Amino acid sequence: MLGTGLIKGLGVTAKNFVGSFHDPTRLVTVEYPEQKTKLPENYRNFPFLVFDEEQDPLGTLRCVACRICEAECPPQCIYIVMERDDKGKAMKRPKVFDIDISVCMSCQICVEVCPFDAIKMDQQYEIAEADRFQALLLNREALAKSNQYYHQIHPTEAAGVDALLAEQKAKQAASRAAAAAAKSAAVPKPAAAATPPSAPVAQPPAAPSAEAPKNPPATA
Ligand code: SF4
Ligand code: SF4
Question: Which residue, 11, 64, 149, 175, could crosslink 92 as a Cys pair with Cβ 3.0–4.6 Å?
């Protein structure tokens, strides 16, 4: 019959409406912004950079400024400059790391391609700004967030990443130890000090025999 589905739907709504007076879990709406629902773990919006130590956020960023994410980002909204020392040697960390979140389309490709688990997707959604250009261009300082925060928003994924990184670290330590052992085995040992030829041992003169000579000289 025409309209049966509509009537059934209204029946479910009415059931939940009445039931919500006794069971708050039946409520499907909340009074935002005073109330907020818990986001699903896989919800994502824009990327952030993971650091390992609270005391030194920018010094412990996992990012090594390899620029793979910059190359792979479809709308090209990532901009990275590698930090260099006085002699121009690359320091394997970003001096500049900007993401224009007015352009980012939350595709997560930057996360997928990062070999160092240095960039992850955030869940922060209250980011409205009056200035749609500069205010939405996030720099390294704004993007840096702790591994602890990563655990809070994506606990399952973060635990997996930690286990993987620990395994990689253990493998690296083992291969370094093996290389060091092989190197020390290859170093030639100093030659043993040549032993001087043994000095001839002076034989003591034979003690005169107490026995009388068997053939004494003939006397005149
Ligand atoms: S976030 Fe990852 S892929 Fe991007 S530059 Fe840093 S280390 Fe490379
Ligand atoms: S989520 Fe996608 S669009 Fe946004 S920065 Fe990463 S790769 Fe670029």
Answer: 64
Per-residue H/E/C for 145-178:
EEHHHHHHHCHHHHHHHHHHHHHHHHHHHHHHHH
- pLDDT-based confidence at residue 214 (cuts at 50, 70, 90): very low
- Three-state SS at 124: coil
Residue 136 CB less than 6 A away from ligand 1: no
Q: Taken in order 113, 119, 124, 130, is the CA torsion positive or negative?
A: negative
Average pLDDT over residues 118-132: 93
Nearest residue by C-alpha to atom 8 in ligand 2: 73
Give 180 Cα–ligand 1 centroid separation in angstroms: 30
Ligand 2 centroid distance, CA of 115 (Å): 15
**Domain 58-154 = CATH 3.30.70.3270:** yes
Residue with tokens 């990532």: 78
65, burial (CB in 10 Å: exposed 0-12, middle 13-18, buried 19+): buried
Please report, for the chain, the start and end positions of each structural domain, with discontinuous segments joined by +: 58-154
Q: Note the pTM of the prediction, 2 decimals.
A: 0.76
Atom 4, ligand 1: which residue's CA is nearest?
A: 69
For ligand 1, say whether the CB of 64 is within 6 Å of any of its atoms: yes
Structural contact between residues 57 and 51, judged by C-beta atoms closer than 8 angstroms: yes
Of 28-32, 34-38, 47-51, which one has max mean pLDDT? 47-51
Q: Could you check whether the bond before residue 33 is cis, i.e. omega within 30 degrees of 0?
A: yes
